[in-house]
Amino acid sequence: xxxxxxxxxxxxxxxxxxxxxxxxxxxxxxxxxxxxxxxxxxxxxxxxxxxxxxxxxxxxxxxxxxxxxxxxxxxxxxxxxxxxxxxxxxxxxxxxxxxxxxxxxxxxxxxxxxxxxxxxxxxxxxxxxxxxxxxxxxxxxxxxxxxxxxxxxxxxxxxxxxxxxxxxxxxxxxxxxxxxxxxxxxxxxxxxxxxxxxxxxxxxxxxxxxxxxxxxxxxxxxxxxxxxxxxxxxxxxxxxxxxxxxxxxxxxxxxxxxxxxxxxxxxxxxxxxxxxxxxxxxxxxxxxxxxxxxxxxx
Length: 298
Hints:
- The chain is mainly alpha-helical.
- The protein has helices spanning about 5-15, 25-40, 55-65, 70-90, 115-125, 130-145, 150-155, 185-200, 220-235, 245-255, 260-270, 275, 280-295; strands spanning about 160, 165-170, 175-180.
- A three-stranded antiparallel beta sheet has the order 1-2-3.
- Helix 2 (about 25-40) packs across helix 4.
């Protein structure tokens, strides 16, 4: 059997070549794996087959004792899950010892998610009589309809949108491409924006970007954050609303409505389903409240 170091190198190469992770994400995975290998070395564990479930739990306990918070420990566990799944897939191991270990519960806290009514209130805030208002309405609608990251939204090109088929082509982290469906409301707002507003904003300038700001350039991340903050204040929100709030709401509302977890994973562009699984906590809370409210013995 190859050494643990060799297996770790193979895993990281797999993430780079086949999964196409960004350099930043790959560095984070590498740091997590390196820390785990250092732990195994101190425990005098030389074979990966000897690093069973008990060893992984001891590692997580050690990190907790060293002061790492639940969110950081959860990230390390996600990395180890990916590593062990890779080893099983490569027939290095027969079983995945990390599979049965749950994420630390307090790591399931999400940034503010909105109710369906709150989303409606926010999306109806822009003034559709103004060109920038129509553009902003289309951006907000698409952000929620497709669960996009703000960087993905502002990087969209005109050719990435197929209104007739009802989907957008998105290039996420590591330039990984995915196709995400959009609903009627987003299609309608985008169509109105392209026909009525975009030419007026461009003023004869040619730009490949779908959503344009000054001189045909794409909006910056900071510019969109300010835009969203302004509309949140106008809508009367007290809690903090970020672009990720709409992405989290997108995932939570889909799961609450009965969507398949893997379908949500694909639409969000998550490489590891463990990342998507944090939303099942929100869905469970929704079901629990529904049971308490409507069941005669709730």
